[in-house]
Amino acid sequence: MKTYLLEVILVSKPLSNILFIVYCLTSAPLGIIVGGLIVQRNGGYASINCLYFLIFNCSMVFCLSITTYFVTNVIAFSIIMWTLLFFGSSIVPNIGGSLLSSLSIDLKGSGYSVQNLMVNSIGNAPAPYLFGVI
Q1: For the segment 96-121, what is each residue's pLDDT rounded down to a tens digit?
Q2: Least CB-packed of 6, 47, 64, 120 within 10 Å?
Q3: pTM of the model
Q4: Which own/partner contact pairs does 21-24 have at CB distance under 8 Å and 24+ positions apart?
């Protein structure tokens, strides 16, 4: 993100550092807190409302990620990126809770282990190489 701000949006290095810090310190924690509160007030992880919430957030993340490609204004990019990270981070606890709530009590420990294994092996491990190739 900082490289994109420096090379595409053409902002100064101090401004890109400040924006990156603001994104990280505000959008992700607020997204996690607000997303968790919304799901818990609308029936919890096991309700159909959680799935609707996840579908809405995933759709928002998809649409916002496409719009970042076309934006060259630093203010518009900052608003879109903050919103993208907010919606993306609100997905994380809710999708984990939804997956684990679908398991019986004796399978929850194994389910959590498999979930972490899949996130790390499919999502986190190949990401730097895969995004570098793309």
Answers
A1: 888 888 888 888 888 888 888 888 88
A2: 120
A3: 0.81
A4: 22/82, 23/78, 23/81, 23/82, 23/85
